[in-house]
Each structure stands twice: as C-alpha cells, then as structure tokens.
C-alpha cells in the first residue's frame, strides 16, 4: 500500500519528466520520421506520428544532390585539420600551464579564458575584409584557421584539467629511472591522456562541424569550397518544397553530432563542456 | 553510462569544486621550482599567443579602425580609406532604426534569458528529484536536444511551423484555435520573433539545466535535512538553502546565456534574415546586413563595436564570478 501511495505522490514528477522528454525529443524525432515518409504522407491533411510506409527515396535525393559528396568532404577536411591543429597547439600550452611554473602563467590563462568568450559574431566583418585583402577569401584554409581559434581555448582549458589530474609523481619516477623529460611525457603521461584527448577533440569536432556564419560569409564566389551547414541552409532554395529531402539532409548532417554527444554523454552531463560547446 | 558525480571527468572537478578541495594543486613547492627554469613554457605557449594575436586581436583592432574610417565598397577595392573620427558612431546613434534594433536586441535577450533560466532551474530540480532510471532518460533526452546542430534545428523548426503541412498548425487547429489554419508564421513579425525565441530556448535549456543540475548535486544533503527538521517549506528551502548554494554557477550560466544571445545570429540569418521587415533584426544581424549587404563596412563595424561593448559589460560579471569560483586554478 505504501508503495502505491509513493507512486501516486511521484506521479506529477513523472508527468513533468515525460513532458520534458517529449519536448526535447519531438523535433529530433519529427526530423527523422519525416525523412523516412513518402511524400503523400508528408503532405497529408492529418500528419502521421508513426510512419506507415517507410522509404529511402529522400535520402537518395539528398545524397544525389549537386555537390553533396564534395561539401561533405570539405566539411570533414576543414574540421579535422582545425581540430588536429588545435589539439597539437593546446597540448603544448596546457602542459606548460599545468606542469611548469613560469612568469606570466596566470596572465596566459586569463587570456585563454577571454579568448574562449571571443565575440565571433562581431568579428565577421573584419575577418571578411582581412581575408579579402590577403587573398584568402573562398579558401578552405581560412575556415580551418578560424575554426582552430574557435576550438583552441576550450581545448586548452579541458586538457589542462586532464593533465593536472595525472599524478606528477609518475613522470618524476620515470625521470628518476633515467628517462628524459620528453620521454617521460611521451611514455607515461600521454597514454593516460588519450581518453581526454579523444573527448576534447570530439567536442571541438562538433563545434567546427556545425559552424555556419564564417562558412557562409568567407566562401562566396567559389561554390565548390562550401561546407555542409551552408549547403543545408540553402537546401530549400535548391529543392523548393521537398521537405522530405530537406529533413533527410538535416538528418545526415545532424547524425555525427548526435552520435558524438550520446557517446560522450557521461562527460556532457558532468558539466564537462561548460562554457564551450553549444549546440 | 552512469551520471553520478564520482564518474565525472577531471575538468568538471576543476569547474565545480570549491577551491579548498583541490588536491592536484598541492604539490611540494620544491618540485615546482626545479621545473620552472628555461624558455620551454614560453615556447610551448607561443603558438597559442600568436594565434590569438593574429586571429582575435588583429581583427578586433581592424574592426575598431574601420569603424573610425570612411570605408565603403570603393575603399574595399581601392584601399586608402580616410580617417573620419567618430562620424560613423554619430550617424548610428542619431539613426532611429539603430535604436529600434538596440531596443529589440535587449527585448530578445531578456525574453530568452528569463525563459531559459526559469525552465532550466525547474528542469534541474526535476532531474534531482527523479529516480535513477528516469534521470538517465531525461538526461539523454536533454543531451540529444543539445547535440542537435544549429542549422539542422533551425531547418526542423521551419518545418514544424510550416503554414500548410506543419505539425504545430495542425495541433493548434485541432485544439480549437481555428485561426491557426494555414497560419503563415514567418510572414508576421511577432510570430517570427516567437518562433526564434522558442528555437533558442529549446536549444539552450539542455546545457543550462545540466550545468545547474551538476551544481545541485554538490549541495550537501544534511542542509536539506536540517532545514526540513526546522519545518521549512519547499519554496523556503529553495530560497534559503538551495539557491544560495548554487548561486555562483547560476550566475555563470546566466551571463553565458546573455552573451550567447548574440549567437542567435545564425538562427535568425537562416530562418528570417532579420525579417519580416525588421521584426527579428538584432544587433549582430543589423551589423552584418549593413556591412556585407549594403557595403557600409564602416557603419557595420561601428555597430559591431557597440555590441562588443554590450557583451564586455556582461563579460566583466562573468569573469568576476568565475574568478571567485576558480581563482586558484589560475
């Protein structure tokens, strides 16, 4: 009896949880199901919450669209090189901050925190003009540099935490045993750091993968250098009212990010990405 | 896939713990000093500093310069722009349209941030009260919504609010609001504004709720017990025990959300392009429109600098809060 009463008392709580879950998931669910529905079901007077017939036709339309493979490749290329560059640079910087004592260390960290909050939305105009002056407009390396700077501060902050969490004594023991400092880092700290590097780079990857504003304004004339977000934003101009294909394209684009976040859920929910990655 | 505090990653500890419990920092001083010598740390930090100088400081300085010049399409092509002092700012500040945009920016910011903080706090309290399985389900749903790329979410919302086949109009019609039959959301200013607010709130609540929830888990349960023994009501406990404890994180999230309002640029640009009319034009949108669409790079830069100033004011609040949080970690 008492469990029944308990259950009753918790009913409003669970109702609220259900409402929240539905509100969070419905847009994602609707995107995916629309992508699998045939056109007549998409454009019917009464929408189907569970698709009766499934079709892959929209995915075919999206993948066969002009330049899809090219933009996919561009996106991967830009994101991977930006994240890799950020990782290498951040590894050095965060090691210096976490393991060494030097004049200017605090100021350096302050700089990193300020850079993390950089007003990128307000820098579009000067970056456009600088790229134009230096002949970097319409080129993927420009985007790589911008994304590198967008992800770098977060990468340093997080890696610093990971390095600081690895006991320094391990390294010192190796050095006592005759390892050089570089060797000690490579063979002791680095393997322990690998999971941290992995998680950090995945978050950087998502940030760069999603970026739209710079990709939109720095790649103008040379359409072959566009990236996926820009392509997706113009998808409707290409396909008009084909919402099935638009949703299929959105699904294909969103999938990597959704998978990464679900894989890293443990990190995400522990406040790991606080202040760095958003949507 | 556990979500308890014990399993949290190292950086979370750096962010959320109080300065007194930071064992990592307490190495013997002698070791530190021995390791301090040489140019190594400067060499390791140099690429970061150089990157910041070229990719952040230089563009910012360039924007300030352009905002003080007569810089239009002609100057973009030919160069040698003329220095005109504060004339661009004068032009802006005497323009009624600019002030409308500023007022709209503040309205947009206020509505978004209030809704986000309110809903996020409620959701965080909800997660805390749920059992393990429910909590995991809710957290997973939040993470999925959070993971949704901005452009994908924007496209989906356009589809949800589609005038003819949109699920929202269908639902509203069947709930008895017949005026929503084929209601063209994006043709009316207030309606488009509402959709953008809904989109931003939907995308922002997960991060805020999860962060507030991880702050809630650091409140010792003895505090609640003693408050309950003293006969405090639920609302009273929240006001006198819970909120003061999570206040630092709450303020951090609050200022982040204020600053991130400017990131709504992307959603607005893709969804409405600032329209219909001017109904959804906020400062960053106005700046880019002025610069890149009307080729008034000088006025656009000036407008950008105004928004940087606004953001800087909030940033001061953010950093003061953060240094109180992890001043020692620096």
Automatic annotation (TrEMBL), chain A:
List, for all copies, the residue spans of the domain called ABC transmembrane type-1. 72-264
InterPro entries to which the protein is assigned, alphabetical: BP-dep_ABC_trans_perm, MetI-like, MetI-like_sf
Q: Which residues form a coiled coil?
A: none
| Chief localisation class | membrane
Keywords (A to Z) from UniProt: Cell membrane, Membrane, Transmembrane, Transmembrane helix, Transport
Membrane topology, from the record: Multi-pass membrane protein
Do you know which Pfam families this protein is assigned to? BPD_transp_1
Q: Does the keyword Transmembrane helix apply?
A: yes
Q: Does the keyword Transit peptide apply?
A: no
Give the transmembrane ranges. Answer: 12-32, 76-98, 110-130, 145-167, 188-208, 243-264
- Please report which protein family the annotation says this sequence is part of: Belongs to the binding-protein-dependent transport system permease family.
> What is this protein's name?
Carbohydrate ABC transporter permease
Look up and give the organism this protein is from: Streptomyces spinosisporus
